[in-house]
Amino acid sequence: MSADPTLPPAAARPGVLVEFVRTERANSAYALLVLAAAFLAGAVYYATQATKAGAAPETPAVDPLNPDAPPPPPPEVDNPKKGDYWFGCIGLGVGCLIAAGAGTTLLARVPPTGVAEQRSWTRGFVLVVGGLLGLTGFLLGMALLLKWNEGVVAAVQAYDTGGTATARAGARWLVMLVIGMIIAIGVVFLAIQPARAEERNNQTLRRLVYGGNLVLTTLLLFGSLLVLNVVFALKVPNMLDTTDSGFYTLSDATKKTVGSLAEPVTAYVILPDDNSREINDVRTLMYSAQEIGGGKFTPKFVSPVTDKAELQKLQEKFTKLDKTGVGVLLAVGEDGKRHEFIPATDLFKSDFQPGGAQKASFVGEAMLVQKLRFLSDADARPVVYFTQGNGELALAADAGAGFSKAEREASQLKTHLESYSLDVKPLELGTGAKAAVPADAKLVVVADPMTPLSDAAAKALKDFMGRPGPDGKKTGLVVLAEARPGAKDRKMAKTGLEGLLTEFNVRLGEQFVYSVPIPQYQIGPREATVLFAGGRDGGHPIVAPFARTAALIWNVPREVAPLSAAPGGPFTVTPLMVTLPQRPTWLEDEQLDSPNQALQDMVENDALRARKRLTGSPRTVAVAVAEGGAPPNPMNPHGGGGEQTPRAVVFANSEMFSNAAQRPRGGGTPATHELMSASLDWLRGKPPIAPGTEKVYQTFELPPGETLNSTRLYLLPIGLALLSIAGLGAGVWVIRRK
Predict the structure, then answer these.
(1) Which CATH architecture has domain 252-363?
(2) Cβ count within 10 A of residue 256
(3) DSSP E strands, 168-288
(4) What's the CATH code, domain 384-508+529-584+619-695?
(5) Are strands 358-362 and 695-696 parallel, antiparallel or unpaired?
(6) Would you list the domain boundaries of the chain?
(7) For 556-599, what is each residue's pLDDT tens digit?
(8) Residue 611: helix, strand or coil by DSSP?
(9) Which of the residue ranges 69-73, 144-148, 195-199 would you say has the lowest mean pLDDT?
(10) CA-CA distance, 527 to 426, in Å (whole number)?
(11) Cα–Cα distance measured from residue 295 to residue 163, given in angstroms and rounded to the nearest whole number
(12) pLDDT tens per residue, range 104-141
């Protein structure tokens, strides 16, 4: 069957749009001018909105000390959406120029004489006008996305996590913007199609088609990269920490705290907008927290220099915001009634080292976790009671006390715990029938009683451990039980808590632990070397952050061990601290005046060594007690595990928690005070805040010039350059051979 000779070839058949523009030039011109007028109206509207001031501030109050003085001028209030309006105004203005120019061209230009020439000209006209309009729309969308870069990921996450109303509104605007960009790409694609009919026999149209294809491919590439970046931003970490110390890596406690926020938190970072390392570290911390926050943590950066109007609004709304300082403001929910402020001075710490050197550290991560935990407790600080009245560590410091007195005071520990948003209070249980633990108590610390607690006090603690706390969860107990002789003999003194601890599967040792001396280090038999259990690989969550902490020296301790090691009981006892395995220890029923003589007596007496249990195996001196499933067994991945409820922590030492605790070189918080806060965090069901969240600033220095390999320094770049040239030449030769 032959084709109809009256019809043009299928490739050259004009489309409806081409024929309409060719035959209805005037109407097409008027339509374009109407479109230009609409664009112009939109541009004028957006320009008006951009130049409109923000909400008027309140009228300044009259100065009561000088009522005749004129009131101070109101602060300038900027329009937060001014940039968006200007982008819209510019985009619509460009569109107006394109549409108006196209309409004027149709009215003023004389069309070609022949039908084929008219169709060719119309195809080129449609391609140019449609391509420019589509390109303008896409570039406008890209500009807005770049301006909204901080909220794009949060807006996308809002659909998955719920998010705030602001985030959901941002998500809707984002969807509309993406749809508009897709329409713009579609306009470019459709504008190219009519010209493809003549790309083989019309050089001008062929160039326009190829140019349009290039523009379309570029737009599609940018769109694909945009989608991929958003997807990867949600699924892949935005930053890689390449520092040797892991300076920018968040701790597990931070990840769990930020990742489990029940309500959305907005972090207003009120810091100067400069590029100093300290400011960049705060900014990096906020972005890292946003990444793991699941849409519940949103940082907003407010410059005290350029955003004065926004800062004034924050100062009027949030009562805890320092009127003159800078820092980080954390606000819960959209109303922000629960909020906390971290001054910038609390984000950094500076300690003086021996010799006058200064050690600077970044502690912003620990402060952020502390404040978020406080806000998550609904503005009610957990109450921790320290028992008093039986010679325990005193919470109040005696200003005139010496070192020996400092061993029996815990005022510095109290200050440290209060910095963790804990409410530390004294508790005198007494001996009468009215002995009881207050109802607001979440945790109780029995800090090394010098005299045994009464039966009534022990019963009050037992009742406390058997009831839920103010938060509806089970309560927790910390016991510090130093080894000391009794008042009437030299045997181990009682604490009054032996029976209660037995119910939790814990045995307080009744013998003194002495250690073989180490003369080269001037360490005697009364000084025990104590390590954190688990080694450098970490162990229990309480001591895992301290895995790389140096060994501690304790005065003669006692054993603290599980009463029954058999699995399957209601309570699981896990060692926290043990004596040094390589240093043998032995047990004595009474405190010794001459432990060296006792060691000498055991040298050639096997029976005496066996009776006193001289061994090189580690002895447990601190434990954690959990109720429920046993800890996972690394030798049996399918056994153990299960949900556990923290119940108690027992240490055979109290001095390390007192004012006499050893401080780090150059000052700072003792690691053992951090150990107490980690224990209380664990009992509260919170991941302990590791001391490693204190990031020490280090200065990198290049090695001396004489240590560098100058030969490799010169020859390696030259060799790489020659190899690249040879590879390029080989590639050219292969291509030309083909």
Answers:
(1) 3-Layer(aba) Sandwich (3.40)
(2) 14
(3) 265-270
(4) 3.40.50
(5) antiparallel
(6) 10-58+75-235, 252-363, 384-508+529-584+619-695, 705-731
(7) 999 999 987 656 678 999 999 999 988 999 999 999 999 999 99
(8) helix
(9) 69-73
(10) 31
(11) 6
(12) 999 888 888 888 888 889 888 998 999 899 889 888 88
Closest of 563, 578, 572, 573 to residue 620, by C-alpha: 578
* Residue with the two structure tokens 């938060």: 471
**With helix as H, strand as E and coil as C, how does 258-299 read?**
HHCCCCCEEEEEECCCCCCHHHHHHHHHHHHHHHHCCCCEEE
> Residue 574: which of 614, 633, 616 has the closest Cα?
633
Which sign does the torsion angle of CA 532, 538, 544, 547 carry? Answer: positive
For residue 634, what pLDDT band results from cuts at 50, 70 and 90? very low
Contact 670, 661 (CB under 8 A): yes
Tokens coding 738 = 């083909």
- Mean pLDDT score of the chain: 80
Contact 315, 323 (CB under 8 A): yes
Helix, strand or coil, per DSSP, at residue 174: helix
DSSP 98-109: HHHHHHHHHHHS
In the 3-class helix/strand/coil scheme, how is 574-590 assigned residue by residue?
EEEEEECCCCCEEEECE
288 and 248 Cβ atoms separated by less than 8 Å: yes
The pLDDT value recorded for residue 13 is: 62
237: tokens are 């970490």
The residues facing 615 across adjacent strands are 585
Both tokens assigned to 115: 């039908």
Structure-block tokens of residue 358: 């200064």
Max CA separation in the chain (angstroms): 127
Give yes or no for a contact between 447 and 489, defined as CB atoms under 8 angstroms apart: no
